[in-house]
Hints:
CATH superfamily of the largest domain in chain A: Dihydrodipicolinate Reductase, domain 2
Oligomer: homodimer
Largest interface: A-B, 78 and 78 residues
CATH topology of the largest domain in chain A: Dihydrodipicolinate Reductase, domain 2
CATH class of the largest domain in chain A: Alpha Beta
Radius of gyration of chain A: 21 Å
Amino acid sequence: MTAGPAARTATRPGAGTGRKPVLAVVGATGAVGTVLLEILSQRADVWGEIRLVASPRSAGRRLAVRGEETEVLALSEEVFDGVDVAMFDVPDEVSARWAPIATSKGTVVVDNSAAFRMDPDVPLVVPEVNAHAARVRPRGIVATPNCTTLSMIVAVAALHAEFGLGELVVSSYQAASGAGKAGVDTLRAQLAAVAGSSLGTQPGDVRRAVGDALGPFPAPLALNVVPWAGSLREAGWSSEELKIRDESRKILGLPDLRVAATCVRVPVITTHSLSVHARFENEVTVGQAHEILASAPGVVLVDDPAEGEFPTPADAVGTDPTWVGRVRRSMDDPKALDFFVCGDNLRKGAALNTAQVAECVAAELSTP
Amino acid sequence: MTAGPAARTATRPGAGTGRKPVLAVVGATGAVGTVLLEILSQRADVWGEIRLVASPRSAGRRLAVRGEETEVLALSEEVFDGVDVAMFDVPDEVSARWAPIATSKGTVVVDNSAAFRMDPDVPLVVPEVNAHAARVRPRGIVATPNCTTLSMIVAVAALHAEFGLGELVVSSYQAASGAGKAGVDTLRAQLAAVAGSSLGTQPGDVRRAVGDALGPFPAPLALNVVPWAGSLREAGWSSEELKIRDESRKILGLPDLRVAATCVRVPVITTHSLSVHARFENEVTVGQAHEILASAPGVVLVDDPAEGEFPTPADAVGTDPTWVGRVRRSMDDPKALDFFVCGDNLRKGAALNTAQVAECVAAELSTP
């Protein structure tokens, strides 16, 4: 065992002391946590000690971060002693219980669950869009959005800043890893079961081949698309669809934004895509939109269909930016743009945004 | 060889004579033609002789229709002698050249290509929506819509009849077979290449595994989605996207209908799906929409997400109707509905609609 966290210093990094803040990664062994450790190893090193935390089941495992093997600690009150910033990548109910415990010890929590996103005393932050909001955190918690919102919001916000957004109609093409490791394992097993067959041409033939091996999905995903993600909310809407609406409104500061979203799972391992119809207050041109997107931080514009250039998940996966292409002005509405975006749901959609927000907080803690 | 077509009677079926009309299937050996022969074998038998026609390359093959082996004839002027109705399921340029030759012999052509769809003297017909239009055909040609339009239009038209359609925003999830047999073969080969692997998590790993074997698609389709179908038209729009707009307007008789479509190919063998945001002139309720869709001819309503009931391509494939589910009233617009539709692109999307239109013409030819 390494020295227990209680043995560590509880001193906060004083303004200008130069001491690097201590980070805890809660949920270090999960699908997002795994990507987060990679990202922490790749980005500029702003952290002092990095403490890895997970459920007691995973405690004692050793994981590499910044090239060092580090032992995973079991989640406990003491694990937050001396921690300046804690990133939470855990289920909603775990965040709901443990984030207040961490903040009671003076730790700033950057939470990637849905537990606090709509709390008016918790900012919902995407650094390219509203980094300033992370500085005002009455509960000591900063939330980061759902992966589907994150896969498009940086591009949407850049266009909003110029044209003034009034309405979004979006349809998603969501990857299996949005449902965690079980989602990926399920899709891979289903693909192995149908590859080399002549399935997919008779009613229910894929369903029979896949059998009960649906994993976290309500229908087969191989050779199929499934118009459902999340849980049932009011009037037939899914939780995933309402997150896109509620989170976009909060991040953009547009409480009356009109949003209609349809969320569909597709047989892709990682990287969510969205088809976006965005209506603005002002007239738009493709030329202006291209200029905005080409210079927007965190956005890569790939838009030359004559040359086969547009974003696809297979190209965007494993990368940081939001990829945008197929930018068109609606033929019947000079105020509307249609475009297609791809974003790695485990990177910008989760781990990367969490890391970026935590770095904003670290910079603030270290600045006089 | 069977008796040449020139030897057959050229008599037209006189009103009330009771003689069943003679049918030619032009393009009998293609992907849609193959499904058409199945459909002709399953539906009420309104036809006398059925003559199978294809390119000289396929002539001489024997195919089963209505349980009888029938020799495929090479496309020629003579092949239309004595033919009352000819179904064309061939590339645009073949239709453009040969349909007028057929009509010059008195044959009514039901054409599934894009060659004549937007000709003001050619009706564009979906029997559940505008069967009456098939009776007025100045050029002797009736066109049937593109598969993507057909996969949604029956459901959209039923709602339009009640609420008055003003705007459509649609995103498609299009199957590989929309690109013909080459599309299906390509997807199956790509799936075999990636199944059992850990691909789909690193930039370009799927692209490298698939190599040049892209078939008719501009990017890998396995473990991917591709936001492109058809050819490039003005201002970044694809031909497939403009077809949805132009054809919906013509079929519904709404020349000013606002339509924005984004077409995306997904790794599904057969059955197109669309996410539809439809804005009407009048306020809507989900209850009314359910009533309309549950009783609309050619539509099956499957909408109980609490029980995992919604349409998916794997369930709709190989069936005739348009499957509709996920019906929601937009939270921010009491005049808009969001829903998800699936339709077999080779059946209702092509062969079935062609057969239905041809049957309308046959009934008219046989009626005093």
